[in-house]
């Protein structure tokens, strides 16, 4: 099955946003064994969209169109596709009800434009939008399939992953199974990782191995194809073990369990609570933990102490210590971790202090970071990093190193801090 | 002059990277008054690239192709374009010398593949690559122009900005300038905003008006064209005033100054400090503020109080108040804002409490949010919201409402809280 992706929206042609939808959809389809041979972008313009649909219809089996399902006048994807396929539009009752309900709940006025969002191509399979208003839909026309998805990534992504892909998997006629596993690495760069498995990478065929670096983490996706799912799984497991033999020390987890999820599961499992004292990171650590449902089970809370005053007055770091060692020091990081743990009565306290930049701070180089950890057993430790990248990349990296060190610490029952 | 952008590279179709080149080129062309009506992506495949060139040649004046100029076997953009235009390839001496020089300097071996990078379309204008090896080129064919640019963004961007655009500007026959302004709105949905200016939107021609919704904010980009830049600016200003007459109450700013930047500038300008007490948002407000360089001038800090215990013990919210009204209440939000302001000695305290979900909490509906504000003058206020979307969208929305309310409050010198 060959697919192509058409993104509709003048904001893409004006360069206001990048076509990250095409990237996301392509990656998911690749994992599902569906080839993507074309991406196109057209503006909110009927004639050009019709022309693009006509090109796509001649060369692809599955035509995926994102964007232009919204309530406004320039949203014309459904109307144009209906024209092209010579089919009608009708209201999807479930979506219409949800839209009406929203306006009742929020006490705001529903316009006719909003109703329009519930219109779908006749005789299509409808995918309810759990994160917005406009539903998605899949319409068959001859031997071609047209999939319409909403444009906002936060609506499109879960709809694709949770609804559309399982539906396609269930209905696909070819007899080929695909299995893949993501290996997650931290503390090693992409180039270094790849050079250590260069021979494996250059010989890959089935399974394939796709490296990806993102926000300081590196992943390897190992994917095998076979007519038999068990065989595909076996091929993947075999390759994962080969890679682990080389670089297993840096592999902290698999599949969807990224650093943050892994820490959450660990804390939950060990019934431990954590609190954070954040200077450099400004609340990013606690905010990241709070992004996981159920965080209140293990996140006691935290204090953002952005100034020396706050470190003394709110957190209780000693004035003498600050005067002697400064805010970006082992001593300050450890004191911050101890103070926050005691203040919140949590099992673990963690602290972040450093120089995010741009520029040095009181003679300390931009990128210098200290992370402290304190346990209720009395164990206290800290480590330092020199981080590169822009201000926010440094903050994100520091949080990841903090999470990674907590995972090491908890998994080893408060053994030595490993970074 | 109408342009289109063709990106060549299988890594785009596999979803390994997003097509940020198309975004960058589009934005620069829009600024130069060149319309972009199509983006396409094709893999490193001769047949499909030929087909794409043939579509482009029928509908665009300037066809921009990025990627596939490199040394490897699958780099076939130049060869395929030469085929399509029925022209030859020849070595660009300056590029060839620079490539040879590189291998002499680094003491590495130059392969025949590397020489290939210096090949250019015959009779084209060549743009030397100051950040890599493969030069760019512009080739005229009938009334069409073909622009080939290297794929790596760090080579393509400076070549486009420093060499290609000045060249096009100098040689272009039309005399047209473009000016645009982005209007930023908050507190009004995209559909509602558009329905209030529906007549303006449906009559637009010059200036054009492009709406965009993102993360709970809505923007309108107003763009005018004229042979005279002053006239284009005048047309934009006139339209902005017409729109402001209708929906100016919701317009908080212009161009690059989003909510966060606007609040930072205001706090800096008024020399005010802020601290936050965050339950629902878990530190996201302080982390967002800390993402701006210089945040230490106005961000005193904050406390994440994720549990009732922390609200009492660390922040100092009264036990009786919590018992009587609960953590998600006007009373608790206002007490949290007061306590945090006093604790940090800041000019403003802000608080966030609510039910992020999934699921209701102690009988309070998922999505219920209370935001409290306290000023050193003694003024205290709060407001409630009902937010939709997933857990993290609710947290982001709540932070944006908080930022918006602070902007209103500070701009009006602590007048009534407006949301």
UniProtKB/TrEMBL annotation, chains A, B:
Transmembrane segments: none annotated. InterPro entries: CinA (IPR050101), CinA-like_C (IPR036653), CinA_C (IPR008136), CinA_KH (IPR041424), Competence-induced_CinA (IPR008135), MoaB/Mog-like_dom_sf (IPR036425), MoaB/Mog_dom (IPR001453). It comes from the Bacteria. Signal peptide: none annotated. SMART domains: MoCF_biosynth. Residues 4-171 form the MoaB/Mog domain. Belongs to the CinA family. HAMAP family: CinA_B (MF_00226_B). This is Putative competence-damage inducible protein. It comes from Jeotgalibacillus malaysiensis.
């Amino acid at each position: 099955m060959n697919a192509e992706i058409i993104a509709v929206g003048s904001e893409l042609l004006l360069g206001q946003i990048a076509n990250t939808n095409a990237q996301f959809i392509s990656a998911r389809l690749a994992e599902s064994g569906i080839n993507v041979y074309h991406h196109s972008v057209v503006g909110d313009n009927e004639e050009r969209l019709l022309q693009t649909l006509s090109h796509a219809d001649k060369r692809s089996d599955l035509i995926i169109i994102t964007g232009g399902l919204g309530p406004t006048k320039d949203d014309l994807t459904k109307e144009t596709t209906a024209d092209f396929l010579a089919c009608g539009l009708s209201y999807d009752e479930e979506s219409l009800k949800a839209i009406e309900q929203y306006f009742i709940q929020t006490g705001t006025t529903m316009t006719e434009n909003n109703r329009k969002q519930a219109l779908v191509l006749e005789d299509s399979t409808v995918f309810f939008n759990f994160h917005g208003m406009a539903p998605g839909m899949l319409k068959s026309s001859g031997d071609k399939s047209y999939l319409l998805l909403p444009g906002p990534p936060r609506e499109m992504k879960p709809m694709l992953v949770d609804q559309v892909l399982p539906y396609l998997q269930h209905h696909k006629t070819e007899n080929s199974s695909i299995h893949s596993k993501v290996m997650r690495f931290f503390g090693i760069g992409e180039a270094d990782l790849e050079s250590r498995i260069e021979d494996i990478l250059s010989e890959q065929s089935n399974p394939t191995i796709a490296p990806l670096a993102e926000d300081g983490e590196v992943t390897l996706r190992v994917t095998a194809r076979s007519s038999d799912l068990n065989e595909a799984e076996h091929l993947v497991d075999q390759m994962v073990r080969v890679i682990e033999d080389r670089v297993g020390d840096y592999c902290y987890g698999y599949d969807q369990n990224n650093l943050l999820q892994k820490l959450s599961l660990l804390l939950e499992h060990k019934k431990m609570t954590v609190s954070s004292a954040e200077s450099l990171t400004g609340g990013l650590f606690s905010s990241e933990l709070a992004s996981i449902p159920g965080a209140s089970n293990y996140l006691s809370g935290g204090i953002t102490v952005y100034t020396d005053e706050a470190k003394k007055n709110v957190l209780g770091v000693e004035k003498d210590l600050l005067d002697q060692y400064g805010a970006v020091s082992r001593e300050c990081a450890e004191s911050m971790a101890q103070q926050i743990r005691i203040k919140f009565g949590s099992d673990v306290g963690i602290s972040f202090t450093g120089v995010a930049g741009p520029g040095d701070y009181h003679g300390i180089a931009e990128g210098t970071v200290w992370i402290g950890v304190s346990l209720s057993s009395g164990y206290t430790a800290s480590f330092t990093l020199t981080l590169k990248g822009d201000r926010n990349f440094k903050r994100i990296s520091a949080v990841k190193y903090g999470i990674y060190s907590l995972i090491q610490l908890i998994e080893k029952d408060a053994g030595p801090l490993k970074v």
